[in-house]
Every structure is written in structure tokens, then in C-alpha cells.
Design goal:
single chain; 2 domains; about 450 residues; 6-stranded antiparallel β-barrel; alpha+beta; Thrombin, subunit H
């Protein structure tokens, strides 16, 4: 799930620097306190960063209210994630940087001088990272974000999140790490103006990845950086979003798919070896407008038939089979690896389509956020599940909640059988079919 602003501005600039460690070059000293792999110049997925943050058991104390800012808080911007708009100091921020090495992003929070210095302040939309658009540095959009700043740096990564019992230390029984049991300790109500869970209430639950169909919903960690949710729809075929494999006009699907995390014996993995995406896909047009949202899908082939062992879900064009009215009445099942739920698969049971558009997209009211890109929207018949759409992006909606957009399966179903049979592809030696996008 991406926003237009986030995709064009933040993902293109801030996240690659954060994940890839662009400020760390060969020959420079490694940064202490960074997640494993970050000092090697690797791009870390949100799953890896979240897992590492959850393992931190001791953090430096937060600066006290009586501490003199000029004498107490001094620092620099030597952290590889400095100047990405988000405070990464431990204790106060995400903890991804050593203390005092993300000064420019953190000093306002430490000194208690939140302001409206961002150029997009007072526009009615919260632009902080995390729960806003990410267009402003933290603590520079106070008027727009003031109602939700208590959610800053909090997530639902605890193993017992979403169980209705607060487990954070201080406010709960302490069995969860600090700031990792947000929904249970601070409630599920969410203002409509933030970019996570726009519908006033966070209705997500954790899914059991040892059980079907959640065992076939996994994550692809791409060699080029980043990660997206993907789903087994054949023995060796996945469905995800095209924007997940599109980078600066080039398609790169190389990566590792991991699923069934909770199954006995451990998760199952496979390498992505081939892909096929919509012939009309255009990354620049997708990021700058709404006319190509329906092309935001990609079929991926993996090198192991995991679906033969784990099973796989079916595919269906819901609007074609049920009509617009029937599609809106259908209960949807959705799940993805959201940025704020750590290593857990979180999702929605019983959400709905709210509008069907003629460009092969649909608007929905399922609570989705970053990391859910490519995640499946399924319908259920008995014990069978069918993918009817995949998560794509959200659109601004002045005066109302954001509009959540998914690409409907009708667009890629004509290519499905040929790709499964090997008649379509880009990277494999199999015969290639017509209508392929240029490499």
C-alpha cells in the first residue's frame, strides 16, 4: 500500500537511504547500534528492521523534562538514517540509530519545541512520518498532527497485540516491549486524517500462518531492496503488485519468497525466477496519476512448487461473476505484512468493496497500510478461497478519509493460465507469448 505523495517523494528518497545505508561507504567505520546487516550496505526490509527493534531490551532513558536542551542534547547527523524526517534515536525515536546521531530529525522532540515549520503545515493533513504522509520532518506539522502524536513511534509488533489486554510496561503487565502493544494499550480508534487505518477504527487481527489460507500468504524480500506481500495462486506462481518490482522504469523481480512462518518445521522459501506484468504498466504514470491503477499487478514464478506442499488459493473475477452489486456485498478476507505489526501477518475479516471503478480497480474499507502492497483480497466459499484483487495504493480525498485502491483480478486473469503453463514470461527460457512489456 503506497500513497502518491509517499511513492513520489518519500519512498524514492528517504526509504532507500534508510534501508540501504547509503551514507555508509566501504572504508568508513561501521555504525554502532545498527541492525544486523545494515553496516554491510544491505537493504533491510521492514520485516527485518521490525524484528531487530523488537529484540532491543534496554534503551537509554528519555531526556527529562527539566534537562537543559542546549547542555543536555547535542549530537550530529552521522547515522545512516539521519535526515530522513523520522527521529531514530533510541528511547525517544525508533532506536535504529545510536544515541545522538540523528540530531536534525530528533532535536525538536527532545527540546519540546514542536512547531509548524514544515511547508505543508496547516493544510489539514498530517504529514509526519509513520502515521502521516511522511512529507514533513517529525515535530514540524503540529497543528495537523496534534490529535495523534500520542501514537508516534508506537506499533503492534508484540506477540500478543490485538488480544484486548495491554501488555506494555508501565501501563500494562510488562510482558510486551515498550510501545509495541498500541491497539491494546491506547485503543483502536484512529482519526480519519492519518495515513494508517483511515476508517476511524483499526479492525485488524493476526492471522495464523500455520493454517490455510494464511500459510500461503507470504512476503517477497527483493534483492534490489524493499519487500511486499505475495500469495500462492498455483504450485509455483505468486500474485503481487507491479509497483513492488518496478524501480526507475525497470522491472526487477529477483528476490526470496517466504511463507508459512508458523508451520511445524519452520517457514518455506523459494526464489523468484520469472515474472509477467501488465503490458500497459508505466511506473511514472502510475505514480503521478490514477489512470493506470488497474495495471498494478505482477505474476511471479518461483523455483520450488511450494503450492504442491502447502496448497494455494484460487483466482476469480468477482465483478465479472457477481456484478457490481454482488461484489460490494461480498465479505472480503485480506492479510499482509504491515509495517507496524512486526513479523506478524495482520489483516481483515469481513471488510468490503465500497466502489467498483471502470479502470479495473475497486475502493475498499479494509485497514491496510505500508507493507500490505500486493496483499490479496479474497472471497470464501466453504473451505476454498479465491483472490479477487491485490492491494495497490491510496488516493487523497479532501474532506474525507483516504480512498483505498486495489487492482481487480479481472485484468490479469486472461494471462494467468499462459503464465502458469510457462507460455508467458520475461526471465525464463520458456517460450514467450505475445504482448510482453519491454525489458
Amino acid at each position: 500500500m503506497i500513497s502518491r505523495i509517499w511513492a513520489a517523494a518519500v519512498l524514492a528518497l528517504a526509504l532507500p537511504a534508510m534501508a540501504a545505508g547509503q551514507d555508509h561507504h566501504p572504508g568508513e567505520p561501521a555504525l554502532a547500534g545498527a541492525p544486523p546487516g545494515a553496516n554491510d550496505g544491505e537493504r533491510l526490509s521492514s520485516r527485518e528492521i521490525g524484528r531487530w527493534l523488537r529484540q532491543i531490551s534496554e534503551k537509554p532513558p528519555k531526556p527529562g523534562a527539566d534537562d537543559a536542551p542546549s547542555g543536555r542534547y547535542t549530537g550530529n547527523d552521522t547515522c545512516q538514517w539521519a535526515n530522513d524526517g523520522e527521529c531514530d534515536d533510541p528511547g525517544l525515536g525508533t532506536g535504529a540509530c545510536p544515541l545522538g546521531t540523528d540530531y536534525s530529525d530528533c532535536w525538536r522532540l527532545v527540546e519540546g519545541v514542536e512547531d509548524n515549520s514544515c511547508q505543508w503545515a496547516n493544510d489539514g493533513e498530517c504529514d509526519e512520518p509513520g502515521f502521516g504522509t511522511g512529507a514533513c520532518t517529525q515535530a514540524t506539522d503540529l497543528n495537523d498532527c496534534g490529535d495523534v502524536i500520542h501514537l508516534r513511534f508506537r506499533n503492534d509488533s508484540c506477540e500478543t497485540a490485538f488480544d484486548g489486554v495491554c501488555n506494555e510496561p508501565g501501563v500494562g503487565d510488562g510482558t510486551c516491549a515498550e510501545r509495541s502493544d498500541r491497539a491494546d494499550c491506547f485503543g483502536r480508534d484512529r482519526p480519519l486524517g492519518i495515513n494508517d487505518h483511515y476508517f476511524g477504527h483499526d479492525d485488524r487481527v493476526f492471522m495464523d500462518t500455520a493454517q490455510f489460507p494464511w500459510n500461503v500468504v507470504g512476503q517477497v524480500d527483493f534483492d534490489s531492496g524493499g519487500a511486499c506481500t505475495a500469495t500462492l495462486i498455483a504450485e509455483d506462481v505468486l500474485i503481487t503488485a507491479a509497483h513492488c518490482i518496478s524501480d526507475n522504469g525497470r522491472m526487477d523481480a529477483r528476490g526470496t519468497f517466504t511463507t508459512a512462518y508458523a508451520r511445524p518445521g519452520g517457514p518455506a522459501t523459494a526464489r523468484v525466477i520469472d515474472y509477467y506484468n501488465d503490458p500497459d504498466w508505466n511506473e511514472q504514470r502510475f505514480s503521478s496519476g490514477d489512470d493506470l491503477d488497474g495495471t498494478d499487478w505482477a505474476l511471479l514464478r518461483i523455483d520450488r512448487p511450494l503450492g504442491a506442499e502447502l496448497g494455494h488459493v484460487g483466482v476469480r473475477g468477482l465483478v465479472d461473476t457477481a456484478g457490481n452489486r454482488g461484489a460490494r456485498q461480498a465479505d472480503l478476507y485480506q492479510a499482509g505484512y504491515s509495517w507496524d505489526t512486526g513479523a506478524h501477518l495482520s489483516g481483515n475479516i469481513g471488510c468490503h468493496i465500497v466502489e467498483v471503478y471502470g479502470d479495473n480497480t475497486m475502493a475498499h474499507n479494509c485497514d491496510t497500510t505500508r507493507g500490505d502492497s500486493g496483499s490479496p483480497f479474497m472471497v470464501r466459499e466453504g473451505d476454498e478461497y479465491f483472490v479477487v484483487a491485490t492491494d495497490s495504493n491510496f488516493r487523497s480525498n479532501p474532506g474525507g478519509p483516504m480512498i483505498y485502491i486495489a487492482a481487480r483480478s479481472e485484468r490479469w486473469l486472461p494471462f494467468y493460465e499462459d503464465f502458469v503453463a510457462g507460455r508467458l514470461g520475461n526471465d525464463s527460457p520458456r517460450p514467450r507469448g505475445p504482448g510482453k512489456p519491454p525489458k
